Amino acid sequence: MFRPIDALVALWPGPGPRRRRGVLVVRMDGIGDMVMFRAALEHYPDAFGVPKSEITVLGCNSWKPLADVVFPGFKVVAIDEHAFEKRWLYRLKVALWVRRQGFKTAVCDMFMRKTLTADTLVWASRATERIVCAPFVTDKTRAEYAWYLAKATRVIDTGPYPTHEGLRHFTFLQALMGIRMPPEIPAIPWRELPPLIPKGAPYVVMNFGSNEPGRRWPFDQFIELTKQCLGAGLRVVFVGAGQEAFAKPVLAGLNHPGIVDTIGSLKLPQLVDVLKHAACVVSNDTGPGHLALGIGAPTVLLAGGGHFGCFVPYPEQIRPPKAVFLNAPMDCYHCLWRCPKRASDKDAFPCVAEITVAAAWRAVEGLVQPVLPTEAR
Predict the structure, then answer these.
(1) Which one of 3.40.47.10, 3.40.50.2000, 3.40.50.300, 3.40.50.620 gives the CATH number of domain 203-376?
(2) Domains of the chain by residue range
(3) Can you say whether the dihedral through the CA atoms of 163, 165, 166, 170 is positive or negative?
(4) What percent of the chain has pLDDT above 70?
(5) Hey, which CATH number is domain 2-177, 3.20.20.70, 3.30.870.10, 1.20.58.480, 3.40.50.2000?
(6) Interval 153-162 mean pLDDT
(7) Residues 6+ apart with CB under 8 A from 280
(8) Which residues have CB under 8 Å from 17's CB, separation 6+?
(9) Digit-coded pLDDT (tens) for 300-352
């Protein structure tokens, strides 16, 4: 059904070549991907010879609340990527908006992407230059990608699977600029505000949620780690959205003054403020974990093996200095999260569940050692 809509948009009258200006950057991805891309974006004005104000980042609603702080100077337009994929009228509205802007250049350097989302938006722009990176292709998607790649004016190879995204962004930039571009540690700018958490002992943030149940370290292991932290004199702040409310009775049952429950009460910018002042953040491989890394918070990130090395762990040349990545090596890594080893799709992937509490505590202890109470060192 979407094919006729996309064809209609492509045929819709738009500005002529002489009236085209500006750069469209298509980023149909999650919070973590945004964090990994942000450092490279800072070089786009030089790469395309335009000011920041003429660069439009077309992103997702999931990180829209952060845009004003994270992307100063750039224009950010956020859409509901899920609605774009499923609702024809919304798709038509968004695609026509892109078409009418008259961008001179449209860019997408997402290696793992959906053609009917990211590539469609690049094509809909009908920009004079349409530059994309070579994507991750399977036998199932080969024909579809071939069609869209043929519509690009330039396709840049950023390396084989499983090259890390943080490296890919700078390989893409290097090809654009024709000069050597050393990769940079993923980082995002963030505001300086007083701590939201009341004064007291240093705190460890537990981010135990994830959109994919398989990537969630078992909650009882988070609780065991919490007890270790409390025993060392640290406070523990639990964060999460409404879907993590199941944890509230468990936390109340622990009845410990060092536990701070913020589940369901923080907006996304407030969550980043809490992460920024943490002595340590322990997180599943999900958006808040990468936000913590992006703002430089000491972070223990629990990683699985579905596409190990593509997003986590960060390679040494771009690993933040206070980052620890934990994983349980298994022979079945790179299954692309098609795991046959779990009993149900609600269970954690074995490569995540088998990360031990002892390993997590050693990582936390190493990061918080300078701020631990004297008697706990």
Answers:
(1) 3.40.50.2000
(2) 2-177, 203-376
(3) positive
(4) 98
(5) 3.40.50.2000
(6) 98
(7) 204, 205, 297, 298, 299, 300, 364, 367, 368
(8) 128
(9) 999 999 999 999 999 999 999 999 999 999 999 999 999 999 989 899 999 99
**Beta-strand (E) ranges in 34-193?**
55-60, 75-79, 105-108, 129-133, 154-156
- At residue 60, what are phi and psi to the nearest 5 degrees? -110, 150
* The residue to which tokens 């349409």 are assigned: 130
Count CB atoms within 10 A of the CB of residue 288.
Answer: 25
The C-alpha atoms of residue 131 and residue 154 are separated, in whole angstroms, by: 5
Instruction: Give me 247's structure tokens.
Output: 């944890």
Cβ atoms of 357 and 224 within 8 Å: the answer is: yes
Q: Tell me: pLDDT of 2 over 70.
A: no
Span 47-63, average pLDDT: 98
Distance from C-alpha of 171 to C-alpha of 175, rounded to nearest angstrom: 6
90 contacts 117 by C-beta, under 8 angstroms: no
Please report, as a single letter, which amino acid is at residue 108. Answer: C
Q: Residue 222 corresponds to which tokens in the numbers above?
A: 């988070």
**Location of structure tokens 């654009």:** 176
Q: pLDDT grade, residue 1 (50/70/90)?
A: low
Lowest mean pLDDT of 54-63, 162-171, 366-375, name the range: 366-375
In the numeric block, the tokens 């460890």 are attached to 204
Average pLDDT over residues 51-68: 98
Stated length of the chain: 377
List phi, psi (to 5°) of 24: -100, 125
pLDDT digits (tens, 9 = 90+) for 11-41: 788 787 778 999 999 999 999 999 999 999 9
